[in-house]
């Protein structure tokens, strides 16, 4: 099978990502069984700059545009869903740290020879108490993607005195990492463990407002904010895993393996495959249509409109929903070849894990519908909710 033959590469980073496909495929079973990416994959991501995809150029990163980022994420997830998930999480959290944290933090974490690898999560918040020079952060968190490979944690907490949500970045040594807590059906290789923090001091410069779109470093990319960039992450991931499953099914049919092989001359199978392919390509096209429009706006200094914010969420929800539908078709069409341990079986589990993410929750769809109908005048998006201006 010619891995990723049709995947687009419109940047040097995408070319490097595509060259890694055989390696990601080779180590995918290891990651699934060990609950973490292999050292070989981590070393390659470092060597080829995949973790620095969104680090500002002035700090030695690629600061890749939204549409080019989608291609890189699609390729990594195609190679291995868990590797793609870790790459997107670390890229997001390391890149936004480089853009939004204070100068002292940057000088200490980003040097000429090193950069931080930041894992964690930014949804369920802990608490932060204001003290001289910073904050004392406490709480318990789950789903810390990439943390087994991280030097630092990116975590959300609410300041007790003001109610303000902030992102806090602190060394992993300041937290209790529950290394055996990731017992899940799919995306096992991400090692998205739980962690606890108890009154850890975080200096002011190592924090930023959770929903900021005002970067201290870097260009227009960071006008998207953490949430906008996260939507690129999950969209690219869904595109890559869906393409891999469709390609695997085609390979089974061409080699006359499993149920797909026995159905290769069936008109019904041909029709269902064509419908799945069309559905998936249409969902992918909506993602790129949405992000080309957003990219054009931010590149000319325009603020993102509420409608653009809606379509960013809608296109992510749609590609995620379509991924699930396509994956279920591929699994059934693959028959026992998809049931046995292997790429399709692992992808199916990974899809059912990835589609549980909060970014595609029912509330998101409902709010998109309200905004599209013009029933949210004057409101704007915060996370997955439409809210009134304060």
Structural overview:
The termini are far apart. The chain contains 13 helices and 9 strands. The chain is globular. It folds into 3 domains: 12-103, Orthogonal Bundle (Butyryl-Coa Dehydrogenase, subunit A, domain 1); 118-209, Butyryl-CoA Dehydrogenase, subunit A, domain 2 (Beta Barrel), CATH 2.40.110.10; 220-387, Butyryl-CoA Dehydrogenase, subunit A, domain 3 (Up-down Bundle). It is an alpha+beta fold and 390 residues long. The model has no long low-confidence stretch (mean pLDDT 95). The protein has helices at residues 12-19, 21-34, 39-47, 66-79, 81-100, 103-109, 225-254, 258-262, 267-299, 306-334, 336-339, 343-354, 362-372, and strands spanning 118-131, 134-144, 152-159, 165-171, 176-178, 193-203, 207-209, 380-382, 385-387. The strands form 2 sheets. It has a 7-stranded mixed beta sheet. It has a two-stranded antiparallel ribbon with strand order 8-9.
Short key terms for the protein model shown above:
alpha+beta, 50% helix, globular, 3 domains, Butyryl-CoA Dehydrogenase, subunit A, domain 3, Butyryl-CoA Dehydrogenase, subunit A, domain 2, Butyryl-Coa Dehydrogenase, subunit A, domain 1, 390 residues, 7-stranded mixed β-sheet
Total strand segments: 9
Give me the Rg, rounded. Answer: 21 Å
Strand order of the largest sheet: 5-6-2-1-3-4-7
In CATH terms, what is the architecture of the largest domain?
Up-down Bundle
Q: Beta-strand percentage? A: 15-25%
Into which percent range does the helicity of residues fall?
Answer: 40-55%
Kindly report how far apart the N and C termini lie: 55 Å
Number of self-contained structural domains: 3
Which whole number gives the mean pLDDT?
95
**Which regions are unreliable across 5 or more consecutive residues at pLDDT < 50?**
none
The CATH H-level homologous superfamily of the largest domain: Butyryl-CoA Dehydrogenase, subunit A, domain 3
């Amino acid at each position: 099978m010619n891995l990723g033959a049709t995947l687009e590469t419109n940047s040097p980073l995408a070319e490097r990502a595509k060259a890694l496909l055989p390696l990601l495929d080779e180590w995918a079973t290891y990651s699934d069984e060990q609950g973490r990416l292999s050292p070989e994959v981590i070393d390659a991501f470092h060597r080829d700059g995949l973790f620095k995809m969104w680090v500002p150029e002035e700090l030695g990163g690629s600061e890749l545009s939204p549409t080019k980022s989608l291609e890189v994420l699609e390729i990594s997830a195609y190679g291995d869903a868990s590797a793609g998930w870790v790459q997107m999480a670390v890229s997001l959290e390391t890149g936004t740290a480089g853009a939004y944290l204070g100068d002292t933090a940057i000088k200490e974490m980003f040097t000429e020879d090193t950069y931080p690898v930041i894992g964690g999560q930014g949804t369920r918040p802990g608490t932060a108490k204001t003290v001289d020079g910073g904050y004392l952060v406490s709480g318990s968190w789950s789903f810390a993607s990439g943390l087994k490979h991280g030097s630092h944690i990116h975590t959300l907490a609410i300041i007790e005195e003001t109610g303000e949500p902030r992102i806090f970045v602190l060394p992993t040594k300041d937290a209790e990492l529950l290394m055996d807590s990731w017992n899940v059906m799919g995306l096992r290789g991400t090692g998205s463990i739980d962690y606890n923090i108890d009154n850890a001091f975080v200096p002011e410069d190592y924090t930023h407002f959770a929903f900021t779109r005002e970067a201290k470093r870097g260009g227009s990319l960071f006008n998207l904010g953490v949430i906008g960039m996260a939507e690129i992450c999950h969209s690219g991931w869904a595109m890559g895993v869906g393409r891999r499953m469709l390609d695997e099914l085609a390979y089974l049919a061409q080699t006359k393996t499993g149920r797909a092989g026995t159905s290769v001359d069936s008109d019904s199978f041909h029709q269902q495959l064509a419908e799945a392919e069309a559905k998936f390509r249409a969902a992918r096209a909506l993602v790129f249509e949405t992000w080309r429009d957003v990219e054009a706006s931010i590149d000319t200094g325009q603020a993102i409109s509420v409608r653009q914010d809606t379509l960013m969420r809608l296109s992510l929800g749609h590609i995620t929903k379509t991924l699930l539908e396509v994956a279920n078709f591929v699994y059934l069409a693959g028959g026992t070849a998809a049931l046995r341990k292997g790429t399709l079986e692992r992808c199916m589990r990974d899809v059912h894990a990835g589609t549980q993410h909060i970014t595609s929750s029912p509330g998101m769809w409902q709010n998109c519908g309200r905004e599209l109908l013009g029933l949210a005048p004057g409101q704007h998006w915060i996370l997955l909710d439409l809210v009134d201006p304060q």
